[in-house]
Design a protein that fits this description.
The structure is a single chain. With about 400 residues, this protein is α+β, with helices and mostly antiparallel strands. The protein contains 16 helices and 14 strands. It has helices at about 10-20, 30-40, 60-65, 70-80, 105-110, 120-125, 130-140, 165-175, 195, 200-205, 210-225, 230-235, 240-255, 295-305, 360-380, 390-395; strands at about 5, 45, 85-90, 90-95, 180-185, 190, 225-230, 260, 270, 285, 325-330, 335-345, 350-355, 385. It has a five-stranded mixed beta sheet. Helix 11 (about 210-225) crosses helix 12 (about 230-235) and helix 11 (about 210-225) packs across helix 13 (about 240-255). The longest helix has 18 residues, at about 360-380. The protein is globular and about 65 Å long.
């Protein structure tokens, strides 16, 4: 094997940012084509219930495209005739590019056998097979519905995870690929049979074997990441260590992964053979905690020297930076974290706090951050911005 290419940390950062589209200028008036192109880059968008600012799956597109119409993503996600995604467990719950459906069937098959899913749900699947089949039959007969509309299964205990038996049955069927998401009512998942939701040309595609499906997911991972460790590669689609370790050498041998050395990184590192490495990246973006650029926290630290943890689940008195802090990318670096909230009743974007990194001054980042906050307020239909007193003049808000 030829000596490995050695890359500087700055080069690795530019490769990673370009793979996610941050090297390109935002379009004037993003349309459906722009949204589709970004989805082709990332292959999926993570879904999360937190709505303190905006639902997680909308944010990555804003970070890259600016103030796009969110109905464009709704069209791709749920329009009966224009659907371009399906919901499944990709990187957690995700909207996944439709062409990848065949490559997730192995995961569905494993889930049907009680493998790779939550332990409690796997036990429920073994113990309640007849009941689960009743629920599937009800969906088949009555059509799309939420868990609360089932005639069997009772009600949950009131908390988010206090699922009823009906909801557990639907989630087991969802994991197994026997039902899918037809649409969402608010944030509630509305279930239906895949053959009534997904295009026949997708469902009729041959199912690859597990090994080839896993190889393709890793190929997509390296395209989306540009450069990655083994851990980063498998984390993208949440492959198990065992599956990833078996497939990665095969992809290296095939030339789909190029081993490289990156300044300051230990362990194997792999490069997309088609990766772009622009001379410079001039990004300006607030990114969600659920954005692919910061998904794998050790990668974020290696690339950007940025230690990042979301503090939603941290008791208020122990939070260091705030409930919902968004990293702020400027140029090729993450330069600050900004704790934001959308007050939809008052029509106000609340900036609770701004924490610049030690390498920058407030004056260096404030003009660009102010522009980004005004753009976000416009996108969310919020007429005003409230910021900490010390920042108002700097941000010009």
């Amino acid at each position: 094997m030829a000596p490995r290419t050695k890359l500087s940390l700055a080069q690795a950062r530019r490769i990673a940012l370009a793979a996610q589209g941050f090297h390109e200028a935002r379009p004037d008036g993003a349309n459906l084509r722009h949204v589709k192109r970004q989805l082709q880059r990332s292959h999926l968008l993570q879904i999360d219930s937190v709505n303190v600012l905006v639902r997680a799956h909308y944010m990555p597109l804003f970070s890259r495209l600016g103030a796009y119409n969110r109905d464009l993503l709704k069209t791709i996600a749920y329009h009966p005739k224009k659907r371009g995604t399906f919901e499944y467990w990709g990187h957690e719950a995700s909207l996944i590019s439709l062409d990848l459906h065949p490559h997730f069937r192995w995961r569905m098959a494993r889930a049907a056998k009680g493998e790779g899913t939550y332990g409690g749900l796997a036990r429920f699947g073994k113990e309640k097979r007849a009941f689960i089949e009743q629920v599937r039959k009800e969906i088949e007969t009555r059509g799309p519905m939420g868990a609360g509309e089932l005639s069997i299964g009772g009600k949950g205990q009131g908390s988010w995870w206090g699922w009823s038996d009906g909801k557990r049955a639907l989630e087991w069927l969802f994991w197994a690929g026997e039902v899918t998401t037809a649409t969402r009512r608010g944030f509630e998942r509305i279930y239906d049979l895949p053959e009534r939701v997904l295009p026949s040309e997708v469902l009729d595609k041959p199912t690859p074997d597990e090994k080839e499906a896993q190889r393709e997911l890793l190929r997509r991972s390296i395209r989306a990441l540009g450069i990655a460790s083994e851990r980063c590669l498998r984390d993208y689609f949440r492959l198990s260590p065992q599956d990833a370790k078996a497939r990665i050498p095969e992809l290296v041998e095939a030339g789909d992964l190029v081993p490289v050395i990156v300044e300051g990184w230990s362990g194997p590192v792999y490069l997309d053979p088609q990766a772009k490495m622009p001379r410079r990246v001039e990004a300006r973006a607030l990114v969600s905690p659920f954005d692919p650029i910061v998904w794998e926290r050790t990668r974020t630290e290696r690339l950007f020297d940025f230690h990042y943890r979301i503090e939603i689940y941290t008791p208020a008195e122990k939070r260091e930076f705030g409930y919902y802090c968004l990293p702020f990318v400027l140029g090729e670096k993450i330069v600050a974290r900004v704790d934001l909230k959308a007050d939809r009743v008052e029509g106000n974007l609340i900036v609770h706090s701004i924490h610049p990194e030690a390498s920058v001054t407030p004056e260096e980042i404030a003009p660009a951050l102010g522009d980004e906050l005004r753009l976000m307020a416009e996108w969310l239909g919020l007429g005003s911005i409230t910021a900490p007193k010390a920042w108002r003049k700097r941000l010009n808000v």
